[in-house]
Amino acid sequence: MFHKFNNEFIQYTRVLSLTEKPNNILMWGHYAQSHSGFVIEFDKDSSFFHQRRSNKDEYGFLRKVIYQRELPNNDPYSTEQLVNHFLTKSLDWEYECEWRMLLVSLDAYKKININDKIFDLYPFPSSAIKNIILGCNISKKLRDSIEDIISNRKDYEHVNILQASRSTHNFEIIIDEYR
Is residue 38 within 8 Å of residue 32, measured between CB atoms? Predict the structure, then answer.
């Protein structure tokens, strides 16, 4: 029964995964094309992250991922436990400091195909963005594109551009104001 629910749940549910640590060196290496990408820092207080319609609604709000050693023992008749299945990861991933938000696939405004994988895109208000952090190895072309978007759109005038760099003394990422 759990397997059946899992397959059905995946058909209509998408997961937005975020981290609370924009300077995590492993996250930059794994998820930002080896420091050549960028990070969007969101305002967690934005209405986008508070779309829950009732206390029983499992969609549209942020929840911290649960890290544990044991596999979850889920009761297939408990909705809460089934949802926690999608919010639980091995302790080995704890460095990610991940938060997740479940979204309904039908709410996506666009689907894109990248290398035969379909991705759902969701609209979010520009006011939800606080900062854009440029990676240590970002290309001039990508940096210029981001600068152009931020400087030419009134709805992004509140967004700061920051620059990530590698520390010269420690294995860490430093985030500073963009020059």
Answer: yes
DSSP string for 140-164: HHHHHHHHHHHHH-GGGTTPEEEEE
d(Cα 112, Cα 165) in Å, to the nearest integer? 32
pLDDT tens digits along 55-110: 888 899 999 999 999 887 766 666 666 677 788 999 999 999 999 999 999 999 99
Is 0.90 surpassed by the pTM of this model?
no
Is the alpha carbon torsion for 69, 31, 124, 121 positive or negative? negative
By the 10 Å C-beta count (0-12 exposed, 13-18 middle, 19+ buried), 68 is classed as exposed
Using DSSP, state whether 101 is helix, strand or coil.
Answer: strand
The residues, ordered by sequence, that sit 6+ positions from 158 with a Cβ below 8 Å of its Cβ are 127
| 98: number of Cβ within 10 Å | 20
Rounded to whole angstroms, the Cα distance separating 39 from 178 reads 14
User: Could you give the CA distance from residue 31 to residue 47 in angstroms, rounded to a whole number?
Assistant: 26
